Amino acid sequence: MSEGVGMGHEPSPDQRLDPPEAIRAGKRSIRLLIFVCISVSVLAACSSSDGSRGVSDAQDHRAAPRFDTPTLIAALKNAGFEPHRRGPRWFDTTFATHARNYCVDRLRMTVYEYQDRAERQLISATISNDGDTIGNSSVRWSGPPHFYARGRLIVQVLGNAPKLNNRLTEILGPTLSPDSGPGRGIRCSPPHDP
Fold first, then answer.
1. Considering the entire predicted model, what is its pTM?
2. Torsion-angle region of residue 4: left (phi > 0), alpha (psi -120 to 50) or beta?
3. Lesser CB count within 10 Å: N end or C end of the chain?
């Protein structure tokens, strides 16, 4: 029988891996494969020509590489809104990051903030056009979800709030959920002055 690649080829003793090393090598290969698949998915989502996954730095001359919560709040204040924090920050497992609710124009707005833009893009690329699916999670919202993304942020408003949604489109770019249905906004109460 000839030597070489194919059936019946037995590796030499110095080519064999001991079982623990073989398991580690297999795990490294699987991690590499997962990383490559995620990277390809993100690149494909980010290069979509319709801009439905948020504003890219190339598409938006106003883009700040670290567009974050304070930047968003300042932009809303400059537009005449009075955003107020509502409750503590929490970790949202669906979005794999911390989130905080705000009351803006008596409507609830949730801000999900990531460490960097690339991390945010991994999640925003998985939001369905109707906003009811994020990654592998199917979500039942209490109103039609409207998602926006820019920089490190994903912003959600539940329900139709034309004034706020229009301003968020100007600040953050087009909604990630254009097929979200109509409905009323989820109300919140502004803080009371002491």
1. 0.65
2. left
3. C
